[in-house]
């Protein structure tokens, strides 16, 4: 019961029932979620549905809604082209390079900057700074640096009597593109690993050192296993980004020369906006969405399963 005092008399009002409190709580939650839900439906769900719808039509993007229904012909045409196979190969190459080169390099730098070295705060800022730059700025910057005629890279190599076509040669364009990606994103993964390392209790490291473990054995048997969840998240983010890679490739090469650096997102842009075949481009976007979704589900089911179960258990215990 709740007592309200107004003047000389006390007025007693019954307390709200548990059901009424639950309803009020759900109304509050709904009011807070509604703006975000509306934006999510308009900016995420609606474009996905439109892409699925347009992918089964032959449509140039003009003249109202598409009417020339062709079923799965866009997908059949896509899977039968050589360019799509090249796009998948480029995706696989970039994923392998990211996971096997970029992420170990980021981990090594993170472990180094976790040590007590002079100026480590400055090093962290310098290494993380490229990630702050937009992809467009990074692309324009490296298109100047890697220019075959007057670029800084060839000017440095000329001191040793060397040069390279970099982005203009089909044999060097993919390694050059990966170097730009690595420069842009290794700082992001470095900060993730550094945060994960700092969450490991120092008592464990000190106990291993007291027991006579070398630095390598301490890293191999203590630090690396405890960094497992962080590494798995880093791999997940790296692969998802690579599947959707567009900005850097478009600014640096636009998929050239001769489609030797083209990704699915660049192919989609080419067919949708340059050639006005929006239905075909929508089919490419659906395939990209399917690849990302399947990878995310499989990765979470088989690789991140223990991490997700641990997070769920912790939340349940807190409640």
What can you tell me about this protein's structure?
This protein is mainly alpha-helical. 71% of the residues lie in helices and 3% in strands. The chain is built from 14 helices and two strands. It has a two-stranded antiparallel sheet. A hairpin with a 2-residue loop joins strand 1 and strand 2 (9-13). The chain is flat and about 75 Å long.
Brief overview, please?
With 319 residues, the chain is mostly helical. The longest helix is centred in the N-terminal third of the chain and has 37 residues, at 18-54.
Rg, nearest Å: 27 Å
**Uncertain ranges:** none
- Write the H/E string, N to C: EEHHHHHHHHHHHHHH
Helix content: over 70%
Mean pLDDT: 88
Report the principal-axis shape.
flat
Work out the strand percent. under 5%
Helix-strand makeup class: mainly alpha
Task: Pick out its properties.
319 residues; mainly alpha; 2 strands
Helix/strand layout:
Blueprint: E1 2-6, E2 9-13, H1 18-54, H2 73-79, H3 82-113, H4 120-132, H5 135-145, H6 152-158, H7 173-198, H8 202-210, H9 215-226, H10 228-243, H11 247-252, H12 264-274, H13 278-302, H14 305-318
Antiparallel strand pairs: 1-2
């Amino acid at each position: 019961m709740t007592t309200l005092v107004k003047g000389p008399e006390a007025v007693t009002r019954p307390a709200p029932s548990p059901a009424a409190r639950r309803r009020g709580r759900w109304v509050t939650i709904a009011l807070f979620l509604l703006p975000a839900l509306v934006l999510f439906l308009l900016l995420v769900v609606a474009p996905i549905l439109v892409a699925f719808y347009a992918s089964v039509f032959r449509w140039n993007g003009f003249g109202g809604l598409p009417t020339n229904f062709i079923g799965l012909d866009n997908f059949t045409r896509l899977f039968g082209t050589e360019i799509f196979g090249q796009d998948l190969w480029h995706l696989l190459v970039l994923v392998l390079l990211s996971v096997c080169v970029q992420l170990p390099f980021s981990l090594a730098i993170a472990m180094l900057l976790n040590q007590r070295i002079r100026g480590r705060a400055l090093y962290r800022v310098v290494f993380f700074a490229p990630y702050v730059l937009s992809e467009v700025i990074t692309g324009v910057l490296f298109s100047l640096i890697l220019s075959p005629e007057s670029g800084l890279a060839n000017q440095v190599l000329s001191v040793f009597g060397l040069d390279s076509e970099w982005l203009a040669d089909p044999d060097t364009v993919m390694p050059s593109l990966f170097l730009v990606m690595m420069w842009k994103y290794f700082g992001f993964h470095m900060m993730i690993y550094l945060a994960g390392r700092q969450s490991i209790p120092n008592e464990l490291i000190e106990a291993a050192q007291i027991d006579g473990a070398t630095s390598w054995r301490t890293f191999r048997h203590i630090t690396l296993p405890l960094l497992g969840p962080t590494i798995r998240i880093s791999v997940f983010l790296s692969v998802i980004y690579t599947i959707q890679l567009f900005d850097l490739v478009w600014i640096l090469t636009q998929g050239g020369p001769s489609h030797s650096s083209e990704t699915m997102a660049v192919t989609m842009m080419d067919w949708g906006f340059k050639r006005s075949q929006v239905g075909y481009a929508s089919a490419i976007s659906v395939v990209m969405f399917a690849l990302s979704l399947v990878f995310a589900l499989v990765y979470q089911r088989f690789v991140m399963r223990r991490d997700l179960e641990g997070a769920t258990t912790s939340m349940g215990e807190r409640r």
